[in-house]
Amino acid sequence: MILIIGGMAQGKLEYVKNNYGIEDKDIFNPDDSCDIFEIGNYKASSDRIIVLNNFNNYIVSCRDKGNDDFDLVDRFIKKYPNAIIITDEVGNGIVPVDKNERLLRERIGRIQCALAEKADEVIRVVCGIGQKIKPDNFRYG
């Protein structure tokens, strides 16, 4: 699994399209009407990589429905390890006044940490430029 993170409107999807040869038909935006396991069924019948775009929105949807988002994410990664997951970084020092918004940002951040731990690669995209942060290519000496 590859995790692509970055701020909103930083060119994450275009980066994925340009660097992985992804077509629009292979990009899914999971939300209330989109079960990530249905996307997985598409993958089973295709040799293409599935891209889950705006994954942070899916986490919000899971929370709103009362689902265990950690469990769903873990099951998906185990079943479809070739997926590319694109998610917005949240927070970056801005603390919402609303308690529920703070809790949601913490939840999204923790899920992103779990995704990064399980990912084969993590790439942060800023201004359309990707920087691989896992595996770490920098070595001392």
Q: Summarize model confidence as the mean pLDDT.
A: 82
**Structural domain tally:** 1
Radius of gyration: 15 Å
Quick one: biggest sheet?
A: 6 strands, mixed
Elements, N to C (H/E): EHEHEHHEHEE
* Overall helicity: 40-55%
CATH superfamily: P-loop containing nucleotide triphosphate hydrolases
Separate helix tally: 5
General shape: globular
* Low-pLDDT ranges: none
Tally of strands:
6
Quickly give the CATH architecture. 3-Layer(aba) Sandwich
- As a percent range, the share of strand residues is 15-25%
CATH topology: Rossmann fold
Query: Largest beta sheet: what is the strand line-up?
Result: 2-3-4-1-5-6
Structural class: alpha/beta
Return the CATH class.
Answer: Alpha Beta
* C-alpha termini separation: 30 Å
Could you give the topology of this structure?
Layout (H helix, E strand, L loop, with lengths): L1 E5 L5 H9 L6 E2 L7 H9 L6 E2 L2 H11 L3 H11 L4 E5 L10 H20 L2 E6 L2 E6 L7
Parallel strand pairs: 1-4, 1-5, 2-3, 3-4
Antiparallel strand pairs: 5-6
Helix pairs in contact: 3-5, 4-5
